[in-house]
Design brief:
Pfam families: Plug, TonB_dep_Rec_b-barrel. This protein has 665 residues and is mainly beta. It contains 4 helices and 38 strands.
Length: 665
């Protein structure tokens, strides 16, 4: 009760304080002829005064990206890592681990209950309107348990979609079929899509087939109220490519980590891993009500699931089944022409079950549950035409419980309770007509996921950690953007992150990983983005990022995170002809053949030897032509057929060629 009173008092202070600031700013505006106040407009993503990277539908299409992993590979400060032994592609922000990344689709947090990581390859791009990426301090409306960053995906509405059929054929006997239809029916806007694809794969043991269904309904109940229902379902069967050394010898799994209900050696000596199947779904319902001209209310409820069954060459099988569901109430109030406040309450619960087979036909089982609730308030102030700011505060309360047969009796049943209070502040300042300064600072936390929660312990600097603490971070970034008279658009951002109680693992404790907290880790770096319109039909870009993410325990850079990345390219668009050429460089790095993430979590402290990987360039090209209502395209990935490694001993695909057509009606 005392905490709730503190939150209510803080919320009241913010609202009252913002009203005084609003009046002061209004008086200042009256006495100045140079500044004209405008009403604050909070976008659907409510990210005013926060720096974001937006990838639009047209940009996704120009790249030829088939999934979110491909769509995000050129984003500065974000590494899409594909070295996982389970064949997944994860997003790591500025050196943070992938379980510090949150992925939303239309406001629904995708289920990652088991290991806290979202496979971006399983999210198709066909129905995506835009992808918003937040790399710095995350606004409190998204929660404050994303110490890395947020990927927010918005799908298409019926009003901005058209009926279409697409067919494509590619290398390795790849086939793709997609159909969508949408439109208006009175007060209802609708969109539905289906996609089916299959491939024989680019290397040994890499067949894959998948089907995706998605839809959205927007119902205008009256001029002041609307109801939106949206959802998606996908089912994938895939073989995970085997790994080979430079002499062509098969590298079998070392058996370190990768599950909760068995010891580290469980997967030892296996190969030919495959999923049959992976099933993912999400559904959400949003009710929006305009209470008056300055007040809006929104109620959202959602549910997301993920179920997968992993087979190996031996008796070992891994069955994961996880669910996340919750609701959120949000109220937005425009207290003045220059100030908007948003407060909200969210509740979420999740459950996860793991089953692992034994050689005698029996199974081990682990069960994990958690509940979380939070209160937050966000205030957006536009002081004048040059300066706007965003302040937020969020209070979180979390409880979790895990029970695993493999841990009995030492860790048969474990429970945890966590609370956190996290402020976030950001601002934009327009120095001149062509120059802007942006900055932000915020506190965030991440409570342990099911795998980490299963076995606290280990030793760091002689201290035994018998209770696992949440990971906490303070994120800072400051940047400057400038548009030159020549049309050259340059933006440079510096970031710095302090992480305390970072969660790591050690291969101690009866053959099982044990998880503990590292007192302090620092990450820093900078990013540069340059864009230039060369002519009415030609644009060019150059992106560069430097990330120093030094692992104080391993005494090296975080695995799979290079110090330097850069990309550059050209886009040409005229008379229905669209050509996009992109070159990406991934710097040298270390990688591990890991059942965890290769960064200490789920790996065992000294179990796996890092492999040094050389940097490489990859060239991608897509050319399309629209004739009437039909588009024809040719896409070539890895145009120069560059040979390189995605991860330790994991050979990357060679040249891939695809031709296709889309018919609109």
């Amino acid at each position: 009760m005392r905490k709730n009173k503190k939150i209510a008092a803080l919320a009241g202070c913010i609202l009252v304080g913002s009203s005084f600031v609003s009046m002061a700013a209004a008086e200042e505006a009256k006495s100045s002829e140079e500044v004209t106040l405008e009403e604050v407009v909070v976008t659907s993503s409510k990210l005013y005064a926060t720096k974001i990277t937006v990838i639009t539908e047209n940009e996704i299409k120009a790249k030829g990206a088939q999934n979110v992993a491909e769509a995000l590979k050129d984003v500065t400060g974000l590494n899409v890592v594909s070295s996982s032994s389970k064949g997944k592609s994860y997003a790591q922000f500025r050196g943070s681990d992938a379980n510090s990344t949150k992925v939303f689709v239309d406001g629904v947090l995708l289920s990652t209950v088991g290991d806290g990581r979202t496979d971006l390859r399983t999210i198709a791009t066909d129905n995506i309107e835009k992808i918003e990426v937040i790399k710095g301090p995350v606004p409190v409306i998204y929660g404050s348990n994303a110490t890395g960053g947020v990927i927010y995906i918005t799908t298409k509405n019926g009003s901005n979609s058209s009926n279409s059929i697409s067919i494509a054929r590619g290398s390795n006997n790849t086939e793709k079929y997609m159909a969508s239809f949408g439109g208006d029916a009175g007060n209802v806007k609708y969109y539905f899509g289906v996609k089916k694809e299959s491939t024989d794969g680019y290397t040994d043991h890499s067949n894959e087939s998948a089907v995706y269904y998605n839809g959205k309904l927007n119902w205008s109940l009256n001029p002041k109220a609307s109801l939106t229902v949206f959802g998606s379902y996908s089912e994938t069967k895939e073989q995970i490519p085997n790994r080979y050394d430079s002499a062509g010898n098969l590298i079998i799994n070392s058996g370190r980590g990768g599950c909760i209900s068995q010891q580290n050696k469980y997967f030892s000596g296996t190969y030919n891993w495959e999923y049959d199947p992976i099933k993912q779904s999400y559904i959400g319902v949003v009710y929006d009500q305009k209470l008056n001209d300055s007040s809006d209310l929104s109620l959202k409820t959602y549910r997301s699931t993920q179920k997968s069954l992993l087979f190996t060459s031996g008796y070992q099988k891994l069955d994961w089944d996880g669910t996340v569901e919750g609701y959120e109430l949000q109220h937005t109030i425009r207290t003045s022409r220059i100030n908007t406040a948003t407060w909200g309450y969210s509740y979420e619960k999740g459950n996860f079950t793991e089953l692992t087979s034994n050689i005698d036909g029996t199974y081990n089982r682990a069960d994990y549950t958690y509940t979380g609730k939070s209160y937050y308030i966000q205030d957006v102030i536009k002081f004048n035409n040059r300066l706007n700011a965003n302040f937020g505060y969020r209070h979180n309360e979390n409880e979790d419980h895990i029970k695993s047969l493999a841990l009995w009796p030492t860790y048969g049943s474990i429970s945890g309770t966590y609370t956190s209070d996290n402020p976030v502040f950001s601002l934009n300042y327009k120095i001149s007509g062509n120059t802007e300064l942006h900055g932000s600072i915020g506190k965030s936390y991440r409570y342990p996921n099911a795998m980490e929660r299963s076995a606290p312990g280990g030793i760091y600097n002689g201290v035994t950690c018998n209770y696992l603490l949440p990971e906490k971070a303070i994120n800072r970034e400051i940047g400057l953007s400038h548009v030159m008279k020549s049309g050259l658009d340059v933006e440079v951002t510096y970031f710095h992150k302090n992480v305390t109680d970072m969660i790591k693992s050690t291969g101690q404790g009866g053959g099982r990983n044990q998880y503990f907290n590292i007192p302090k880790v620092e990450m820093h770096g900078f990013e540069a983005e340059i864009n230039r319109k060369l002519s009415d039909c030609t644009k060019a870009f150059v992106n560069y990022s430097y990330t120093n993410a030094y692992d104080t325990l391993k005494k090296r850079q975080v695995s799979d995170i290079p110090y330097r990345n850069f990309s550059y390219g050209l886009n040409y668009l005229k008379n229905g002809l669209n050509a996009n050429l992109a070159v990406s460089y991934i710097g040298g790095r270390t990688s591990l053949f890991s059942n965890g993430n290769g960064n200490g979590n789920s790996d065992g402290q000294n179990a796996i030897t890092p492999v040094s990987l050389a940097g490489y360039h990859v060239v991608d090209l897509k050319v399309s032509k629209v004739i009437d209502k039909r588009e024809y395209y040719v896409k070539v990935q890895n145009l120069l057929d560059k040979q390189y490694y995605l991860g330790a001993y994991l050979i990357a695909p060679g040249r891939y060629v695809e031709i296709g057509t889309t018919m609109k009606f």
